[in-house]
Amino acid sequence: MTEAGAGEQRSPGCILALDPGERRVGLAVSDPERRVALGLPTFEAAHGRNFVDHLRNLLQAYAVTKIVVGQPLGLHGRPSAQTRRATALARRLRRDLGLDVELWDERLTTAQAERVLRGEGAPRGARDRVAAVLILQSYLDRLRVEEH
Q1: What CATH number does residue 25 fall under?
Q2: For 106, which of 25, 77, 85, 119 is 20 to 30 Å away at the CA?
Q3: Contact 18, 136 (CB under 8 A)
């Protein structure tokens, strides 16, 4: 591995986004320059796999340096039981993975994902994946605005 030379910029690393649900977790990852969100296969809790181990594999495979967890606030911004579960998940991931984990308001992303997939005959896991892509892309767009 070579050091970045003068004038060279290192990529900030990929960001992994999660759209947590009770049985499935939608997943998306950014490109290393943090411009585009790409969907990954949905994690199915019913398959008996350990979620944190699955994330560790993704962190290594995609050189992830940050995680964004969708935080489902109510329409008026009030926390719900799902909000508390997302917050607890973020806390657990910070502890278990040692990475920066940020919560991101994901109001209406599931509804948006359903609109995107309407009439496609897509499986439910596709909705979770599209929701994760929408969460991550909105986060990446905000990062770009903050850079300027």
Answers
A1: 3.30.420.140
A2: 119
A3: no
**Residue 114 sits in which domain range?**
14-147
The two tokens of residue 28 are 């998306």
How many CB atoms are closer than 10 A to CB 30? Answer: 27
Closest by CA to 25, choosing from 137, 125, 98, 115, is 125
Task: For 34-70, write each residue's pLDDT tens digit.
Answer: 999 999 999 987 766 799 999 999 999 999 999 999 9
Is 107 in a helix, a strand, or coil?
Answer: coil
Domain count, the chain: 1
CA separation (Å) from 32 to 2, 36, 38, 148?
17, 9, 11, 19
Return the H-helix or E-strand segment holding 109. Answer: helix 109-117
Handedness of CA 18, 19, 20, 24 (dihedral sign): negative
The Cα 131–Cα 2 span in angstroms is 37
Q: With a threshold of 0.85, does the pTM exceed it?
A: no
Q: Tell me whether residue 6 is in a domain.
A: no
Q: What's the first-to-final CA gap in the chain, in angstroms?
A: 31
**Residue range 98-107, pLDDT digits in tens:** 999 999 987 6
| Residue 74: φ, ψ to 5° | -70, 170
